[in-house]
Automatic annotation (TrEMBL), chains A, B:
Domain of life: Bacteria
PANTHER family: HTH-TYPE TRANSCRIPTIONAL REGULATOR GALS, LACI-RELATED TRANSCRIPTIONAL REPRESSOR
Ranges for domain HTH lacI-type: 4-61
Name of the molecule in the record: Transcriptional regulator, LacI family
PROSITE patterns found in the cross-reference section: HTH_LACI_2
InterPro entries the record matches: HTH_LacI, LacI/GalR-like_sensor, Lambda_DNA-bd_dom_sf, Peripla_BP_I
Length: 334, 334
DNA sequence: TTACATACTTTAAACGATTAAAGCAAGGGG
DNA sequence: CCCCTTGCTTTAATCGTTTAAAGTATGTAA
């Protein structure tokens, strides 16, 4: 089956490609194309099973109707959730999403961004990897439309959609305090990422505002493989923690696995609160109380902000969304 | 920052775009370009931060270096696994993957395939939705390179990579029999999909070969929301089943949730065996014995088969891979 | 009869790359 | 002095679209 393009249709009907293009783009009336001719063209296109070559169209129009999305790590629940939301919203607006995962690696992040730019995406939605400030600055200088999601760099002024991490963590901590926990441990990554550090700040401020003196060892800033030592440290002390606040679902997952292994009961032996929900929580014996990010909303806002940026240029949006605290049964309510 | 193309470099150096193109494509020697000129071109490209316009290149070369991937449902573990594998292998070969999910809907499947074709993907990797035979036949007639993964239609001769579902189910059932289970229930979707039906066939043949008379009610062909009734039916009978063989991880997940709700212990009250592993199994109190598909291998084979098809045309490959039975602790070994 | 509007349709130049083919200058052989 | 190489560079067509601008034919008014 040979390719059929405008030319083939034009020959078949006996007109020029221009006319075919007009008709097929719905400009038949505007361009005053003879009705019969228009009909002939339409039915020829149908009969020959014409498929416009989007590549040629993109080249001419300098518009690919494609968004590049870079997430931090495809395995995160956050990533699949936000991807889904973004794809849905993009599709509504007739955009395709091509995406890749940086695996939290700054170089891979830069590489993906470059690949997308070469493919002439109309804009980018990015969950930036740690230390990718330089790449972001480059995008600004190059005037490439982009919006950050989930993470932003406080000292670079960009468009972004994030969670109000401070508030979410504050509220979560407050909930633990209200349910009579007094020795609350926060388990977070050892990181420089602003959004994660904001969670620590929310946690600490909540303690402070409720007059609970903070102990340094309650704030565990670790890598995921160090969960066992960290939990041992805070759970077997003379004054063991009565609640574990995990700053991400991945940390919580590993934490819960460790608790299972140690046969520690949740919430009997220790209360657990998580940020976000992992699929894996579904079969844990107790529903995990967690702070839920509005992924749908984030994705929607991200796409819409980006499209505004692409179409009308030069807008500035910094959006903070609020998390919902979903009450499960993983915190003792005594 | 205005766009820099071949033209800008050419002007900057004072040569024609042809020369620039040659040098930038590593044909400097072949085309006997003056060494100094070549160097000037290269450094100009660097200095101006030249990025080739892949769209223009694709149009000219009639090659996009893009693969279209359609999965059945983004939420399946199988889908994320195979996507990951395919992306990895594609990247190794300098291909980009654009993908979409049909959500098991035949029309959405066809639509996605069309979008990809319009975008001039070089080939397709497809997990076909139920009843999409027509679309597959169309692709064959149009001579568009594609390979099916996971699912194939026995009466259409295509290239495909699947699991040997019959054998996997046979072996799994045999394991249950070997561990002294005699009333084994198979829970599968109500479907016409060949690969899923093969699992039933494997199950039944294993029973037959071990002289266990099959009872109709042991084979539950249902929709996922009917799990509760189905399990009630087979577990509360006068002669309740001693093992549940779930044909997919999704079914198993819902089954386990139901067992949790009913406070039925695994494997104390009933043994459980699953096809594939859901992330959610991680926090179940007992590791689930399951048949594991070699996703990495499938993805790799799919990409390589497709690339052969794209490059050398006209090959025919039907590949069946074997599953591994991963022994957990969800089957009583008495 | 001329002029001009109306109703269509075609021409041809883009978009940014690739690449066969042609062009040009210098040097060597006869 | 003419012709042919060799070494290097440019010209121009092409990929499949879009779209201003120009073209043509017919009808109508002055």
């Amino acid at each position: 089956m040979k390719k059929v393009g405008l030319k083939e249709i034009a020959e078949h009907v006996g007109v020029s490609t221009a006319l075919v293009s007009y008709v097929l783009n719905g400009q038949a009336i505007e361009k005053q194309v003879n009705k019969e001719t228009a009909e002939k063209i339409l039915s020829a296109a149908e009969a020959l099973n014409y498929r416009p070559n989007q590549i040629a169209k993109s080249l001419k129009m300098r518009k690919t109707h494609t968004i590049g999305l870079v997430v931090a790590e495809i395995n995160y629940r956050f990533s699949t959730g936000i991807t889904r939301a973004i794809e849905g919203e993009a599709k509504k607006n007739n955009y395709t999403v091509i995406y890749g995962s940086s695996n939290e690696n700054q170089e891979k992040f830069a590489e993906l961004v470059n690949v997308f730019i070469n493919r002439q995406v109309d804009g980018l939605i990015l969950v930036p990897a740690e230390h990718s400030e330089e790449q972001i600055r480059f995008l600004q200088k190059a005037e490439i439309p982009f919006v950050l999601v989930d993470r932003n760099f406080p000292d670079i002024k960009t468009n972004y959609i994030t969670l109000d991490n401070y508030k979410a963590a504050y509220k979560a901590t407050e909930y633990l305090i209200a349910t009579h926990h007094r020795r609350i441990c926060m388990v977070n990554y050892k990181t420089t990422l602003f959004n994660l550090l904001e969670r620590n700040r929310g946690y600490r401020d909540a303690l402070k505002d409720h007059k609970i003196p903070f102990k340094q060892k309650w704030l565990q800033s670790i890598n995921v493989e160090d969960i066992p030592q960290a939990l041992d440290h805070v759970l077997t002390a003379t004054d063991p923690c009565d609640a574990l606040f995990f700053a991400t679902d991945t940390l919580a997952l590993h934490g819960l696995k460790y608790l299972n292994r140690k046969k520690l009961n949740v919430p009997g032996d220790v209360s657990v609160l998580s940020f976000d929900e992992s699929d894996a929580f579904e079969l844990f014996y107790t529903p995990i109380t967690h702070s839920r990010q509005p992924l749908e909303e984030m994705g929607k806002q991200a796409v819409n902000t980006l499209l505004e940026l692409i179409d009308h240029n030069k807008i500035s949006k910094q959006i903070s969304l609020e998390a919902d605290l979903i009450i499960g049964k993983s915190c003792k309510e005594s």
